[in-house]
TrEMBL record:
Taxonomic lineage: Eukaryota, Viridiplantae, Streptophyta, Embryophyta, Tracheophyta
PANTHER family from the UniProt entry: CTP SYNTHASE, CTP SYNTHASE-RELATED
Residues covered by the CTP synthase N-terminal domain: 2-272
Family: Belongs to the CTP synthase family.
Catalytic activity: UTP + L-glutamine + ATP + H2O = CTP + L-glutamate + ADP + phosphate + 2 H(+)
EC class of the enzyme, as a word: ligase
Pathway(s) it belongs to: Pyrimidine metabolism; CTP biosynthesis via de novo pathway; CTP from UDP: step 2/2
Main function: Catalyzes the ATP-dependent amination of UTP to CTP with either L-glutamine or ammonia as the source of nitrogen.
An example Gene Ontology biological process: 'de novo' CTP biosynthetic process
Glutamine amidotransferase domain mapped to chain residues: 310-543
SUPFAM superfamilies documented for this protein: Class I glutamine amidotransferase-like, P-loop containing nucleoside triphosphate hydrolases
Annotated EC: 6.3.4.2
Gene Ontology MF terms in the entry: ATP binding; CTP synthase activity; identical protein binding
Protein name: CTP synthase
Length: 593
């Protein structure tokens, strides 16, 4: 096993995750199989209890792990499926060491940061890097380890110490350290400044780690003399100083690395030169180009809690982007803070109310993403009603689906106080209720999480066709509430159709409004499995419906979009290989499922 460690210096938010993922892409494009480990030096055991508005989205894995959003980057870029253990946090490491101590495994020794915590970190990395993540059975070739935070942070010290020991243990030729840093340009003189990078490399060295490659973020390519200076002061060959200058879209980053021969620098450090081929990045090149040339917009209103941090919905945005590129449209996301659609805002903040309504009315499609808590719920209900009544394509995800049910119960069934008990525990018409197996007291890791199967009930519905005429799909979940099974008959006789259910037939997974051009709700989060070359079915449906392409798509469903790429050579799209047979429907509980 070979290891590439990616650290960050100078400031946070340099795009270390995207850089590390792109390194993985280039290595994969050379023919190597790649996995990744993300280290988050915070104390939380996982990202599950962290606010997406502070820390960005909580990404959910197949195994139900609630992890840092960078794991989403890795899964999307490398087309792999990671496990919860691929995200290490300080909390997880300490918990494992404390558990061992309580079991008496340390045989009376004093348990300390060095060596016990540092050993636990190394063992964890070694163990997790061996887990195959690309559908094959044997371990992959290279593990990209991303250390979160910035060199010098107090919290990352045990990890740095552990990684220093680790690099020594695995030995030269098996370990390559890429340090991502910033080369700022002072506007007054327009000069590219190397000092911050010098300082951060000095910090890194002081902690026992030697960078092999410098990946410098800057606005423009680095001047040759700047590269030489960095090489001299940071003891890194000039050929190993790479510039990650600003590009028009992220698909360019692997290309930028390849063009500067970053793969050669890495392969040289890993003793793999001549063992693998040249990177084949045709699909990435084409996608980067297409993305730059798209002009005709597709406008999607995202109706949620908007706080200015677009990372809060990053997988949803990526899924919309993948689908838009497939439909050859330029994605324009209109952020609509749901509370601004409400009547009370019209009184208190008339401008905000008008802006929100203009954005909603100007949209080709409407998306209500997942969420928790009652802020802005009424606005989301208003948006669902607007989409339903005006035949505007609508996709409701998780909370968004529950909102669609509440709206239907209120407007069509006339149950004015219909609600989710999450928002009104005393409602007389609870159409969304807690799942019996959930916990209301322990918040971390107690939801219905991860990959669960949905069985389709109706072979003619839009979602079945979009998924490529399959009997069932596995998608990722993260919820505590569900549509009240006792209200299904009423809702269905009023025209709402629950076309996807779980294996018991009592839990609603997908709803559709057959009389509407595209009105779909999913209890799961399809965004987590969307890939650049294989957009998620329901997102593709939304975008296609929003730009007049849905009929064609339903006539000729993109079967090859489903399943997971298993080709290990390059990052070309998977050969058409449907995971599920088309045209068959499982019979369960007496219904076609
Ligand atoms: N709050 C809702 C639930 O727990 C929806 C969750 C979500 O959208 N992820 O069921």
């Amino acid at each position: 096993m070979k290891y590439v460690l990616v650290t960050g210096g100078v400031v946070s938010g340099l795009g270390k995750g995207v850089t590390a993922s792109s390194i993985g892409v280039v290595l994969k494009a050379c023919g190597l199989r790649v996995t990744s480990v993300k280290i988050d030096p915070y104390l939380n055991t996982d990202a599950g209890t962290m606010s997406p508005f502070e820390h960005g989205e909580v990404f959910v894995l197949d195994d139900g792990g609630e992890v840092d959003l960078d794991l989403g980057n890795y899964e999307r870029f490398l087309d792999i499926k990671l496990t919860r253990d691929n995200n290490i946090t300080t909390g997880k490491i300490y918990q494992s060491v404390i558990d061992k101590e309580r079991r008496g495994d340390y045989l009376g020794k004093t348990v300390q940061v060095v060596p016990h915590i540092t050993d636990a970190i190394q063992e964890w990395i070694e163990r997790v890097s061996m887990i195959p993540v690309d559908g094959k059975e044997d371990p992959v070739d290279v593990c990209v380890i991303e250390l979160g935070g910035t060199i010098g942070d107090i919290e990352s010290m045990p990890f740095i110490e552990a990684l220093g020991q680790f690099s020594y243990r695995v030995g030269p030729g098996n370990f390559c350290l890429v340090h991502v840093s910033l080369v700022p340009v002072l506007n007054v003189v327009g000069e590219q400044k190397t000092k911050p990078t010098q300082h951060s490399v000095r910090g890194l060295r002081g902690l026992g780690l030697t960078p092999n490659i410098l990946a410098c973020r800057s606005t423009k390519p680095l001047d040759d003399n700047v590269k030489e200076k960095l090489s001299q002061f940071c003891h890194v060959p000039v050929a190993n100083v790479i510039t990650l200058y600003d590009v028009s879209n992220i698909w360019h980053i692997p290309l930028l690395l390849r063009d500067q021969k970053a793969h050669e620098a890495i392969l040289r450090e890993l003793n793999l030169m001549g063992v693998v081929g040249e990177p084949m990045l045709d699909e990435w090149t084409e996608r980067a180009k297409i993305c730059d040339t798209l002009l005709e917009p597709v406008r999607i209103a995202m109706v949620g809690k908007y706080t200015g941090l677009s990372d809060s919905y990053i997988s949803v945005l990526k899924a919309l982007l993948h689908a838009s590129i497939y439909c050859r449209r330029k994605l324009v996301v209109e952020w609509v803070p749901s509370a601004d659609l409400e009547d009370t805002t019209a009184m208190e903040l008339p401008d905000a109310h008008e802006t929100a309504w203009n954005a909603l009315r100007g949209a080709d499609g409407i998306l209500v993403p997942g969420g928790f808590g009652d802020r802005g719920v009424l606005g989301k209900i208003i948006a669902a009603k607007y989409a339903r009544e005006n035949n505007i394509p609508f996709l409701g995800i998780c909370l968004g689906m529950q909102i669609a049910v509440i709206e239907y119960a209120r407007s069509v069934l006339g149950l004015k106080d219909a609600n989710s008990t999450e928002f009104d525990p005393n409602t007389k018409n609870p159409c969304v209720i807690p799942m019996p197996e959930g916990s209301k007291t322990i918040m971390g890791g107690t939801m219905r999480l991860g990959s669960r199967r949905t069985y389709f009930q109706d072979g003619g519905c839009k979602s079945v066709k979009l998924y490529g005429n399959v009997g069932h799909v596995d998608e990722r979940h993260r919820h505590r509430y569900e549509v009240n099974p006792d209200m299904i008959t009423k809702l269905e006789s009023a025209g709402l159709s629950f076309v996807g259910k779980d294996e018991t037939g009592r839990r609603m997974e997908v709803l559709e409004l057959p009389t509407h051009p595209y009105f779909i709700g999913a209890q799961f989060h399809p965004e987590f499995r969307s890939r650049p070359g294989r957009p998620s079915a329901l997102f593709l449906g939304l975008i296609a419906a929003s730009c007049g392409q849905l009929d064609g798509l339903l006539r000729d469903p993109p079967r090859h979009l489903h399943g997971m790429a298993t080709a290990n050579r390059g990052t070309q799209s998977a050969p058409p290989k449907p995971l599920f047979n088309s045209g068959f429907y499982l019979k369960r509980n007496g219904v076609h499922a």
